[in-house]
Amino acid sequence: MLLVLLLAGIALLVAPLPGILGALSSGVIVRKGHGSVRVSRAEEPERFRKLLNQRIATMIPGAIIVGVLLLLILAGLFGGAAQG
């Protein structure tokens, strides 16, 4: 059960990375949804930064899930080792 949750958290954490890395390297982010619009960092720096921050924020639930589960796993490993 924990392994499935850990894999789900990793998937949530890693899924937005290609779009984020592509936007950082090219300086252009493509807005998702109906009528996708290209936003250039050179032309609209504030809008680009806002969209990039929103994409990065989508990684937070995955990071929380992975962090909590890793703490539980490590606590279980070291807790069991301390008991005997």
Helices and strands, with pairings:
Blueprint lengths: L1 H13 L2 H10 L1 E3 L7 E3 L4 H13 L2 H24 L1
Antiparallel strand pairs: 1-2
Helix pairs in contact: 1-4
Keywords, separated by commas or semicolons:
single chain; 84 residues; mainly alpha; 2 domains; two-stranded antiparallel sheet; 7% strand; elongated
Describe it for me?
The chain is mostly helical and 84 residues long. It folds into two domains: 1-16 and 60-84; 17-57, no CATH class. 71% of the residues lie in helices and 7% in strands. It has a two-stranded antiparallel sheet with strand order 1-2. Helix 1 packs antiparallel against helix 4. The longest helix has 24 residues, at 60-83. The mean pLDDT is 90.
Number of strands: 2
- Read across the widest sheet, the strand sequence of neighbours is 1-2
Distance between the termini: 25 Å
Quote the average pLDDT.
90
Could you give a short description of this structure?
With 84 residues, the chain is mainly α.
